[in-house]
Amino acid sequence: MSGRRGKILLALVGLTSSAFFLWLAVRNADPDQVRDALADAKLAPLLLTVVVLGVGYGFQAERWRRIADTPALGLRSFYAMLLGGLACNNVLPVRIGEVLRAGWLSRDAPMSGGRAFGSVVLDRICDIVTLALFFAISLHVVASAAWLVRLAVGAALAVGGIALALVLARQYSRRRKPHGGTHPSRVVRVLHDAVVMLGEPIGRRHAAVWLGLSACTWTLSAFTVILVGRSIGIELSPLEAVFVVSALALGVAIPSSPGYIGTYQWIGVAALGLLDVPVEQALAFSILMQASWFIPTTLAGGAVIGLRAIRGRPVREPDPNPL
Predict the structure, then answer these.
(1) Which end of the chain has fewer CB atoms < 10 Å from its terminal CB, N or C?
(2) 3-state SS record for the chain
(3) What is the pTM of this model?
């Protein structure tokens, strides 16, 4: 019962947070002007946005494939698992999609659950580091604001925490004693294997490749900000687009309901407000921007999950060298 009450409490906190931030986003907006902006949005840039985001997910899937470093699966499999995880994050709480895609990788590769989870953690670390860097680079294009300072401090603390965690994982890996696979529980084994993987030397070349792929992913996302903005008459410079996309991506770390409804709109309105964009246009932008990734990933990821359920077992790619 205590676990169930915890889940209910977590859901209530997320829904309350979403409702509060959604109120902050819409309180000063004229509904009629927001509706007119959405109705007048140009379709071509929005369709191109979906295509560009799809390419960006390809870079992210390739990064995850290189981190996992398993010869059993190719890019197509990682892309499908990534979409499935994104779809789960859109509709389920606490980013459960990250845990699920680790489980899929563990079964499909196959590899230990801990190493699969460690690969997902490293994948997300690459995003945080890249976004923090993008955010720092683009901060000078806007005036300071209290929420912006808090977001910057949070990003800096996150990067510092990541660095400390990797150092501690490295120390643990060096000092650990052989366990022979006899950990008392599956959870402990998973955590042990994940920490061991995080403590393994990465190497400058691997780190450069992973962060380079991350930069490609988020540069394309910044381009989609420009496209969505132009669809409703907002002209943003490349550096302003980098600021908006990094603020949106870092800001959705705030606890909220699945799909980041409410927090996403408030961050979008607040970020564009610092660029002198009217609140109605900013709110319309936030709605269209979220729809451009939420709807395609939910539909495509849902199809991936459904296909996995129908087939009932991992779908392996054919071995290019069967002999």
Answers:
(1) C
(2) CHHHHHHHHHHHHHHHHHHHHHHHHHCCCCHHHHHHHHHCCCHHHHHHHHHHHHHHHHHHHHHHHHHHCCCCCCHHHHHHHHHHHHHHHHHCCCCHHHHHHHHHHHHHCCCCHHHHHHHHHHHHHHHHHHHHHHHHHHHHHCCCCHHHHHHHHHHHHHHHHHHHHHHHHHHHHHHCCCCCCCCCCHHHHHHHHHHHHHCCCCCHHHHHHHHHHHHHHHHHHHHHHHHHHHHCCCCCCHHHHHHHHHHHHHHCCCCCCHHHCCHHHHHHHHHHHCCCCCHHHHHHHHHHHHHHHHHHHHHHHHHHHHHHHHHCCCCCCCCCCCC
(3) 0.88
pLDDT of residue 318: 42
Residue 278's pLDDT is 95
pLDDT score recorded for residue 322: 38
The pair of structure tokens assigned to 294 is 């939420």
pLDDT at 18: 77
- Evaluate whether 57 touches 82 at the Cβ level (below 8 Å): yes
Write down the residue that tokens 């845990």 correspond to: 99
Per the CB < 8 A criterion, the answer to whether 18 and 256 are in contact is yes
Which residues have C-beta within 8 Å of that of residue 296, sequence separation ≥ 6?
Answer: 50, 53, 54
pLDDT averaged over consecutive 10-residue blocks of the chain (323 residues)? 60 75 86 95 97 97 96 94 94 87 93 93 95 92 81 89 89 68 69 87 93 97 98 96 95 74 91 94 96 96 92 52 38
CA distance 146 to 71: 48
How many beta carbons lie within 10 A of that of residue 247, not counting itself? 27
Separation in Å, CA 197 to CA 60, 68, 96, 258: 20, 10, 21, 29
Judge contact between 97 and 88, C-beta under 8 A: yes
Tokens of 117: 């989870």
